[in-house]
């Protein structure tokens, strides 16, 4: 699957990735984008970051980070899915 994400607005756009197929996301614009790679997202994820906005990528611990093409401003944050589930239950 290939998706073009264009975000120039104020605020943050949150994208949640699920599934097993390969994904290519091209991110354009000056808005902030959070990409949440869920634990069931087992396919290759490739990000083509062209925009000037900040991209934060959330990756479950133990899972491979996405491939980055080009390389606008981005941060990779690793999280423990079990801790997140406990927070949600509280």
Question: Overview of this structure, please?
Answer:
The protein has 90 residues and is mostly beta strands. It has one domain. The mean pLDDT is 89.
Beta strand count: 8
State the strand order across the main sheet: 1-3-5-7
Radius of gyration: 13 Å
Uncertain residue ranges: none
Give the SSE string.
EEEEEEEEH
Which band does the percent of strand residues land in? over 45%
Oligomer: single chain
3D shape = globular
Largest sheet: 4 strands, parallel
Q: Structural class from helices and strands?
A: mainly beta
Mean of pLDDT: 89
| N-to-C CA distance | 35 Å
The helix count comes to 1
Q: Helical percent range?
A: 10-25%
Number of domains: 1
Main attributes?
90 residues; mainly beta; 1 helix; 8 strands; 10% helix
Gist of the model:
By secondary structure, the protein is mainly β. The chain has one helix spanning 81-89, and strands spanning 2-6, 12-19, 23-28, 32-41, 45-49, 55-60, 67-70, 74-79. The strands form two sheets. Strands 1-3-5-7 form a four-stranded parallel beta sheet, with no helix packed on it. It has a four-stranded parallel beta sheet with strand order 2-4-6-8.
Topology (SSEs and partners):
Elements: E1 2-6, E2 12-19, E3 23-28, E4 32-41, E5 45-49, E6 55-60, E7 67-70, E8 74-79, H1 81-89
Parallel strand pairs: 1-3, 2-4, 3-5, 4-6, 5-7, 6-8
